[in-house]
Design goal:
Blueprint lengths: L4 E7 L2 E9 L5 H19 L10 H21 L2 E7 L2 E11 L2 E9 L8 H9 L8 E7 L2 H9 L3 E11 L11 E5 L3 H14 L5 H10 L1 E7 L2 E8 L6 E3 L5 H14 L5 E6 L3 H9 L3 E2 L4 E5 L9 E2 L8
Parallel strand pairs: 5-6
Antiparallel strand pairs: 1-2, 2-3, 3-4, 4-5, 6-14, 7-12, 7-13, 7-14, 8-9, 9-10, 10-11, 11-15
Helix pairs in contact: 1-2
């Protein structure tokens, strides 16, 4: 593990101390604030309609309550978590997880005023090292060109874009022979989910499913008694993984129906654009695509992502 690092940056007559230190679960709110403030700038530059709470204290507090469990989960299960500080003030952070031999950079945010000054390069060197011995390395990355250039230098390359599709949910008919079985967190359930993940995304991730099952309603999808997939629904949805992608219309219809019955004003999913079955269905249903999209980047092709929908928000696969 790389130790804490202190650098000195000189600008005109001013000299500022830049420290890269290890993050802890106590830094979860700091990480959240850095993410929200960075996304505000990114949304403005890319013309996204996705909400950010950084400019509104009440919205920021509400968003923190919504996202707190996610940030704490990532902090407790991170492989690497590093925060950049200038003269004691946090200006950026980066974090990665390792699940079943797959290393994923979950977050990488540097405040706009601190970008292009070596901060990002130092954070990535700490948080996304090739030395962890992972079989695969992945990033779900924004289209920001400066970040893309940095990611390419780490040896990962874009495989496909991921678009967010959303709309106000309606009551829809399903017309399927699938059975939708609510699930709870048991060792048997986690084993089933692990088998599905290995078949579809190439690796298991028990820690993430254990967390998801406390935050969202999970479903197993069965046909003639056999498990053919899983999905999660709630105020935020995903992931969804199906052995047959032709089942996505029924699964997404079921998820939208549940959102409508709960009185949600909005329902949306993060779709890899090689998943034609999901994209075609959502467009037919009148879903709108957000301007802010992501790239799935990896050091080598793997997985059957035409059978998959990502976790929303897409911090983790």
């Amino acid at each position: 593990m790389i130790g804490n690092l202190t650098l000195t940056q000189t600008s005109g007559a001013a000299t500022a101390a830049l420290t890269i230190r290890e993050g802890t679960p106590d830094d979860s709110y700091t990480a959240f604030r850095l993410c929200e403030e960075t996304f505000l700038d990114l949304n403005l530059r890319l013309g996204s309609g996705q909400p950010t709470s950084a400019a509104d204290p009440e919205a920021l507090a509400a968003m923190w309550e919504k996202r707190r469990a996610l940030y704490e989960h990532l902090a407790h299960t991170a492989n690497q978590f590093w925060i950049a500080e200038r003269d004691g003030e946090a200006i950026g952070y980066a974090r990665s997880i390792v699940r079943d031999g797959v290393q994923e950079l979950t977050e990488f945010f540097v405040l706009p005023g601190a970008q292009s000054a070596g901060v990002g390069r130092a954070l990535l060197a700490h948080a996304f090292p090739a030395s962890v011995g992972a079989q695969r390395r992945v990033i779900i990355a924004t289209a920001d060109l400066r970040a893309q250039a940095r990611y390419l230098k780490t040896g990962v390359y874009p495989s496909f874009p991921i678009y967010y599709f959303g709309r106000a949910p309606e009551v829809v008919g399903l017309g399927t022979n699938l059975a939708f079985e609510p699930i709870s967190k048991t060792s048997k359930t986690l084993a089933i989910l692990g088998d599905l993940d290995r078949a579809i995304i190439g690796h298991a991730r028990e820690a993430d499913h254990a967390w998801l099952l406390t935050e969202r309603q999970g479903f197993l999808y069965r046909r003639n008694g056999h498990v053919v997939g899983y999905g999660y629904i709630g105020p935020s949805s995903g992931p969804f993984a199906l052995r047959d992608p032709n089942d996505f219309p029924a699964v997404l219809g079921h998820a939208e129906l549940q959102a409508a019955l709960r009185g949600q004003r909005h329902f949306g999913v993060e779709v890899p654009m090689i998943n034609r079955a999901a994209a075609d269905y959502l467009l037919t249903r009148g879903y709108r695509m957000d301007a802010l999209f992501a790239f799935f980047m990896s050091d080598a092709p793997f997985g059957r992502f035409e059978n998959y929908i990502f976790t929303s928000p897409p911090f983790i696969m």
